[in-house]
Amino acid sequence: MADGSQPQGMQSKSIHARVKNAGAPSEAQLAAINAYTLAALTAADVYVRTFAVAHNAIDRDNECFSSAVLADFARTLPGKGAYITHPGGWNGDGMPAEGRWFEATVETMSLDEARTLLREPGLLFPPTATQAEILMASSYFVREAGLDFVFRKIDAGIVGDVSIGFTGRGGTKPLEDAAGRELEAREWQTPQEALEASLVWIGAQQGARAIKQHNPNANPEPAMPTEKTPQEKTLDDLREKAAAAEGKAGKFDAVATAIGATLADDPAKAKLLIDAGDAYRKSLISQIVVADREAKRLGDDEATVAAATKDYDLMSTAGLERMAKAAEATVPKGGQLGASDPSAPKPSAGDANKAPGGFVGAQAKA
């Protein structure tokens, strides 16, 4: 049905929605709502309703939606405006929407189940339809004094008709019966894009009922925890220990791969080599730090020395060897370098004459 008062190219279809339940969102709905907000909202901030927005039955305009069109609507309606005053109606004011549609899905059921849900026992479907398809969509509104009267009327079942506005780009084609004969009714074709959905006085798509949760099985109540038996607790303990052992085994395999199978089978020898390598690295770092202090590239205070030592410890052994060799070349023959520990006592003149040259005996405080 094209409404002449609507923007050019925009179509709308309306359904009647009866409402009974309170509009509090579930935890899942609140999470979906906050995906659209700029500030986090709580359940107390919003009023939520789920509507049967459209279906594949033949409506009052002798038209219906194809399965593909309903799928288009389910994909494109979330994020669009939910209006109190239909923007395409005679009194549309062009103002921003009061609410937003945040989720939509197409549900299938038997034709009789749909007639019961929509409370329309005489609802007609296309001759070839074997099941009903209903577009269920949820919208949220911010609770405020100016809209409380609307929410109360929705709860009372007085307000409830909704209309979906869409582009209508796919056009319509005649419906056919099982024998391929054209009928007077027509079916909307894809592609379509949902532009909005809003409350109206009555709609072309008759008989939809708004419900609190369109899929009762989507978010079932969590089961109450039950006390575990002693056997179950023992089994859980064994599983935790097995998982911990598996993690340790994985770490050992990684170490064995790194040091080789021979050393992995001789832990004592592996420790000796590791300690020797660690001591060698420390001696290299000590030489570099002392040279830096002597060349005034590094301060003598304990914090500065400790920070430099930590930085050099991140380097590879080969890199440390290159730096230590370069640093040694800058020291005068027979020169005396002070200890890298700023708190170490200063050597006397006599000691200086006895001290060996180079870096022998230099120590860095880690």
Shape: elongated
The helix content, as a percent range, equals 25-40%
Strand order of the largest sheet: 2-6-5-4-10-7-1-11
Helices and strands, in order, run as EHEEHEEHEHEEEEEHHHHHH
Which sheet architecture does the biggest sheet show?
Answer: 8 strands, mixed
Helical run tally: 10
What is shown here, in short?
This protein has 366 residues and is α/β, with parallel strands linked by helices. Helix content is 35%, strand content 20%.
Explain what you see.
- By secondary structure, the protein is α/β, with parallel strands linked by helices.
- It is 35% helix and 20% strand.
- It is built from ten helices and eleven strands.
- It has helices at residues 27-34, 67-76, 111-118, 145-155, 230-259, 261-264, 267-294, 302-312, 317-329, 349-354; strands at residues 11-18, 46-55, 63-65, 81-83, 99-109, 132-142, 162-166, 172-176, 182-188, 194-199, 205-209.
- The strands form two sheets. It has an eight-stranded mixed sheet with strand order 2-6-5-4-10-7-1-11. A three-stranded mixed sheet has the order 3-9-8.
- β8 (172-176) and β9 form a beta hairpin.
- α7 (267-294) packs parallel to α9 (317-329).
- The radius of gyration is 39 Å and the shape is elongated.
- The N and C termini lie far apart (83 Å).
- Residues 1-8, 17-21, 208-225 and 334-366 have low confidence and may be disordered.
